[in-house]
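For this section, I looked closely at the sequence of one protein beside the tokens encoding its backbone, which the following lines show:
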Amino acid sequence: MTAKPLLTALLPLVADLSRELPEGERYRRLLEAMRALLPCDAAALLRLDGEWLVPLAVDGLSTDTLGRRFKVSEHPRFEALLSSPGPTRFAVDCDLPDPYDGLVDGLDDHLEVHDCMGCPLFIDERPWGLLTLDALDPERFEPIELDALQAFASLAAATVNAAERIERLNNRVEDEHQRAEVYRQASGQQNREMIGQSKAHKRLVEEISLVGGSDLTVLITGETGVGKELVAQAIHAASPRADKPIISLNCAALPDTLVESELFGHVRGAFTGAMNDRRGKFELANGGTLFLDEVGELSLTVQAKLLRVLQSGQLQRLGSDQEHQVDVRLIAATNRDLAEEVRSGRYRADFYHRLSVYPLLVPALRDRGRDVLLLSGYFLEQNRSRMGLNSLRLNSDAQAALLAYDWPGNVRELEHLIGRSALKALGNCKERPKILSLSAADLDLPNASAESVVEQPAVVATELVTGDLREATERYQRQLIGACLERHNNNWASAARELGLDRANLGRMAKRLGMK
């Protein structure tokens, strides 16, 4: 490759180094320039995070790839690239399994023979991640000199370095990561990532960042399975208490007497079976965060005792008159409407107001658009590793089914569905496949269309059922379709898939409703 094409491809990236760009856009331009310089069918930028490779940007690979986390020890091609000081091109007939099997857009078959190369990226002489290129033509990279990839990798490293420096200056990320790492080591818990790119998810992340830096009590609300505990952990990790533990208690799992003992501790002889003194969750969380899950299940008696601790910071162990002073930040979560519980007399108003200093609603999965595919990618990679498969992927009809489903059980339901479907699909194979593809039939999701939904009077909101029935039904249809279009940025094809309709039928319905 001559110097002129190389310079032409690299100059825009050099100019970008001095510009403040969103991280995603910066990495997208990086891959775009690389594909212009080194034509290929798929390219990816992956960051090394401990023993995992995390995709930051992909081009030519399926959307769910961004949700996957590749364990390096399970992917020998990645291991080989990371262990090399420079670019590596694999033999076209290399028998090492390819981590992108089944993930290249437009190709469902196994990557038996193809051209593949990659290069490690180093920041401050330490391995940071990888650039990878794949071509379906086994001779695509034959005329390419590895020096060209090395030159590009050097500029890519500078791009990554610039992006990280800007992010550190804007958000003090470096200090936050250090606190989070201390917390993970102290608590023994594995860091769990919040995955998503939808507007609803980004708003949630912004609110977590905002309230995380304060000491306010947070009440996390949302449907079952949306990930309220994960949000609580993220708030703690973003707080000045991140180097202290976060202690959790599921309030619905224990009877009242045991809840008090778990929260406040007890002394020997306080009740039958209390053989020794024991500290409660408040004392264990001293200096850190206490997370009370299912806080809506607490009895009025326990609420009163908790209110005293939250107001004064003082508690007594069961069976003891001695006061203990604690400094705890409280985060609570519930799927109940606590305001309604207060109105009905089942919940103390003063305790509710003490909990809801900063209410935080976690969006339902159905309101997060294509995040369902990213989360699917994360769970697919987990199950691929667990089942010892080379590749576990979704067919296009399976992706459409996931986007169209309503997800009453939210992220937890998606996680269980992927695991269950993968196991059943593997059990139906006579021979162990190299690529296991899940179809819509494997997922076995209900196939309810928007037409059938809106024709059921039970789902029409009370405020809509006024006046003429036809007008009320059409009003609801307009709201349903409008909300779906907003989630998909007015992409009618994507909205039609989510609603379970043919695109042409959706267009006709929208025209009839005066929306087109």
